[in-house]
Design goal:
The chain is about 55% helix and about 20% strand. It has five helices and three strands, in the order ααβααββα.
């Protein structure tokens, strides 16, 4: 069995779903919080908690702004987060290939 470590920040199921969804966006593209929440079918509180952990790891940026008088929050996968997800998927593939041996 290969000695592979999976990034614990990404490995939690909800954070993996967040990062995988953000990775489908173009580099530097953002998604509005409500749209991400709807795509992932998560409560606002649950999504916020996982985004905080990803933000603390510098895997995402959370930008709070206003559109007119309405507060708006945008989420973006950072280059570091994108690379962490690539390494995670490569490590997972390696692990799975080793499991079949």
């Amino acid at each position: 069995m290969p000695d592979v470590e999976l990034d614990p920040v990404i490995h939690a199921q909800s954070r993996l779903r967040v990062v995988a969804t953000l990775a489908t966006l173009g580099t530097g593209d953002q998604i509005a919080f409500p749209k991400l929440q709807k795509l992932l079918d998560m409560t606002a509180g649950n999504l916020s908690t996982h985004l905080r952990k990803l933000e603390d790891a510098e895997y995402v940026t959370v930008t709070k702004t206003h559109e007119g008088r309405t507060p708006t929050t945008y989420i973006c996968l950072t280059p570091r987060g994108r690379r962490a997800f690539e390494v995670y998927t490569e490590s997972l593939s390696t692990l799975l290939r080793g499991a079949g041996s």
